[in-house]
Design goal:
Helix content is 42%, strand content 13%. With 381 residues, it is an alpha/beta fold. It has a 9-stranded mixed sheet with strand order 3-4-8-7-6-5-9-10-11, sandwiched between helices. The protein has a 3-stranded antiparallel sheet with strand order 12-14-13.
Length: 381
């Protein structure tokens, strides 16, 4: 994912860590808070235009070309300044990939947030992490095992990542407070879900941290939790699932983890307990079976030796901005429909260059007409 290295004319601190200037942070915040700009679109815009400021100037034109009836809202500089000021009062920092406090492995996923809202101990967020997720309506045995696993992994030096919800998440957080735990929020830092875990979060911040990609005031909705789940798995070396029924959110996290190249672990349960049906299925599908922390540590240790590198700018044939003509645009749009299709298929079937196809997709997305799915698939809304 894009790092500060991906935008031109960046400053560096005394230690050589890349960071945004104050003006660039405002521009990045304006761009990601504008209508129809998600993390992948943000990256495409930066790669096309070289800076967030240049991209902001082109948004209305691109949306018009994509078929928008009217331009989407562009976040104003005043709104961005107000968000930064309000976040600062809460102790929330807005951090870009590659800056201290942005979990290194999270920065490497395709749709990493360009700016992450972070509270707590920044040093804890730079340590290796293991995610533990599971049922909100967990059994006593499941809660007890989650506590034991989180405690043992914490003692081995890992920060425990979870979603701050009831059940397994809560047990994992509580058991790893002393060693460090990371809460990943679906809403803004001032809109904790569930509300009764506000005190738990306050305790977590002493030794660990909390992250969100949402602005202050954002109340989490059902669709925000799958988006949140990609951050849980993205920040971690691996994801452990403890008690998950069929079609549970924890299985979504496991699927996303596999797509991100993370290790997936599952704790077996009784075949008579529907809360274990999903985890047992994960084991059948190839997830590593876990009965103790050593199972995870032995699998993760070789991965920890691999350095984490942030991708820079995309190759020149992708980063260049080619102007599609009417026939190019019409041909690519005709290939899109309600059924998801991959970009490679659009390039092959459309007979256009990768830069042309990506430009048309960028226009459609900014017009609010394109939907992204897992595995790099896209469809028309």
């Amino acid at each position: 994912m894009l790092s500060p290295r991906g935008e031109r004319h960046l400053d560096s601190n005394a230690q050589g860590t890349p960071h945004l200037s104050d003006a660039q942070r405002i521009d990045w915040l304006r761009l990601i808070r504008s209508d129809n700009v998600g993390p992948r679109t943000f990256r495409s815009l930066i790669n096309h235009f070289g800076s967030a400021r240049a991209a902001l100037e082109r948004l209305p034109e691109l949306a018009r070309r994509g078929g928008a009836a009217r331009p989407g809202r562009i976040c104003s500089e005043d709104d961005a300044q107000r968000e930064l000021a309000a976040s600062g009062k809460m102790g929330v920092a807005l951090i870009a990939p590659g800056e201290a406090g942005y979990p290194p492995r999270l920065a490497g996923i395709d749709d990493a947030p360009p700016l992450l809202c972070v509270r707590g101990r920044l040093d804890a967020l730079m340590r290796p992490m293991i995610a533990i997720v599971g049922s909100r309506n967990a059994s006593g045995a499941g809660l007890k095992f989650a506590e034991r696993l989180a405690r043992d992994l914490g003692a081995a030096g890992f920060v425990i990542v979870s979603g701050l919800t009831r059940g397994i998440d809560q047990a994992a957080h509580r058991a790893s407070i002393s060693s460090g735990t990371l809460a990943v929020l679906a809403g803004g830092h001032d809109k904790i879900y569930p509300p009764e875990h506000d005190g738990l979060l306050f305790t977590i911040l002493d030794t660990g941290g909390a992250i969100s990609e949402m602005p202050l005031g954002h109340v989490p909705r059902a669709r925000d939790f799958p988006r949140r789940n990609r951050l849980i798995s993205g920040a971690a070396l691996g994801v452990v699932v403890i008690e998950a029924a069929h079609r549970s959110g924890s299985l979504i996290t496991a699927r996303i983890a596999a797509e991100q190249g993370r290790e997936v672990f599952a704790v077996p349960g009784s075949p008579l307990d529907p809360r274990a049906a999903g985890t047992n299925d994960l084991i059948k599908q190839g997830a590593a079976l876990v009965t103790e922390a050593a199972d995870i540590i032995n699998a993760i240790t070789p991965i920890m030796d691999r350095p984490v590198e942030l991708p820079g700018r995309e190759p020149d044939d992708i980063a260049s901005f080619d102007e599609p003509d009417h026939s190019d645009r019409a041909r690519i749009i005709a290939l899109l429909g309600p059924s998801p299709v991959g970009i490679d298929d659009l390039i092959r079937l459309g007979g256009a260059s990768p830069a042309i196809v990506r430009t048309v997709l960028l226009e459609l997305e900014l017009a609010g007409r394109l939907e992204r799915h897992g595995g790099g698939l896209l469809s028309m809304i």
